[in-house]
Amino acid sequence: MLETNEMFKSELYAAEVSVSKYAPQTYDAVWAIALALSGAERIWRSANNITVGHFDYTRRDMATEFLQQLAQLNFLGISGPVSFSGADRVGTSAFHQVQG
After folding, report:
1. N or C terminus: fewer CB in 10 A for the chain?
2. Category of 91 on φ-ψ map: left (φ > 0), alpha (ψ -120 to 50) or beta
3. Would the pTM count as exceeding 0.70?
4. What pLDDT, in 10s, does the model give residues 20-41?
5. Neighbours of 36 (CB within 10 A)
6. What distance in Å separates the CA atoms of residue 23 and residue 87, rounded to the nearest whole number?
7. Which helix (H) or strand (E) holds 82?
């Protein structure tokens, strides 16, 4: 994953484009979803021989497994460490006081 992060940064730098300050979080969100879906599908295939293609909005069992996979994620993303506590991303917060 670290190589992918470095590739992302170098591609943005090489393109010389202005990037939204939210680009790193968006990139990490896409990775989180992909990793969670991949993990959930492994479980679904081994337990019931089903894939993400079987998903519909009435499948609570699939939604539950997806959320469990998200809860287990822990990786270093572009924007920093990525993990979740319930629906919230765990992260570092910084507070700055501006004077003068």
Report:
1. C
2. beta
3. yes
4. 778 888 888 899 999 999 999 9
5. 20
6. 20
7. strand 80-85
CA distances from 22 to 18, 64, 81 (A): 12, 28, 15
Report H helices in 1-100: 2-15, 23-48, 60-72
- Collapse the DSSP code of 78 into the 3-class scheme (helix H, G, I; strand E, B; otherwise coil) and give the result: coil
- pLDDT tens digits for range 49-58: 888 888 888 9
Task: Output the six-digit token pair for 20.
Answer: 């939204």
Dig out the tokens for 91 from the structure: 């992260």
CB 37 within 8 A of CB 66: yes
